[in-house]
Amino acid sequence: MDYFFSPLACSFAGHVIIREASLPIEMQPVSLLRKQTKDGVPFDTISAKSQVPVLRFDDGRIVTENSVVLQVLADMAPDHGYLPPRSTTAGQATLEWLNFVASEVHKHCLYPIFTKGVPAEVRAWAKDNLVKKLAYVTRQLSHTPYLAGNAFTIADAYFGWALMLTLRGGLLEPQGDLLAYWDRLLARPAFTAAMETEEALFSQFA
Ligand SMILES: N[C@@H](CCC(=O)N[C@@H](CS)C(=O)NCC(=O)O)C(=O)O
């Protein structure tokens, strides 16, 4: 099984889960600038969407869309609780936060901020909006250590990426409960190892 990711892109979330659960998955870096794998294979021959993440099974079948890929990865390590059962409060909260990060934080805010050619006023609007979304997340983190409660879930892996990008981009100075949450993520060896690995690969595969 292969996981196609691009350093410091949203596929970081799946990378964290793969490391957290020690899943036997081959990591395949992709350059999104060149749209090529490390072996020079055109990325659109692997996924017509040409976007990371892509999970490829041994029979050639692929799964795309970060929120779905993360659920599939969590299902491969059921004992870790990265996605509690959907019938539970924690499971519903995990999916709710997952969707919030994908739609409100990633595509609504981070995408326009980090995409070349976006008009300055749209970028400014997205930055303002990001501050509001992060304030909402921080309110939750004043009640619970992780987004969906007391345990780290796939929603934290995805939001952890969003926060990492926010900090790297100097978009916000984290304080209080958000800073404590960031420190909590950094204390997870898999999170830090994924970050260091992707930082080292970034110049080669961005
Ligand atoms: N809807 C997709 C979007 C994923 C996405 O935006 N991936 C970005 C990296 S964070 C990407 O591959 N960008 C390259 C492109 O869109 O051409 C998902 O949720 O997985």
From TrEMBL:
- Pfam families listed in its UniProt record: GST_C (PF00043)
Domain spans labelled GST C-terminal: 87-206
- Classification via InterPro entries: Glutathione-S-Trfase_C-like, Glutathione-S-Trfase_C_sf, GST_C, Thioredoxin-like_sf
Q: Which domain of life is it from?
A: Bacteria
PANTHER family tied to this protein: GLUTATHIONE S-TRANSFERASE GSTA, GLUTATHIONE S-TRANSFERASE-RELATED
| Protein name as it appears in the record | Glutathione binding-like protein
Q: Which organism is it from?
A: Hydrogenophaga luteola
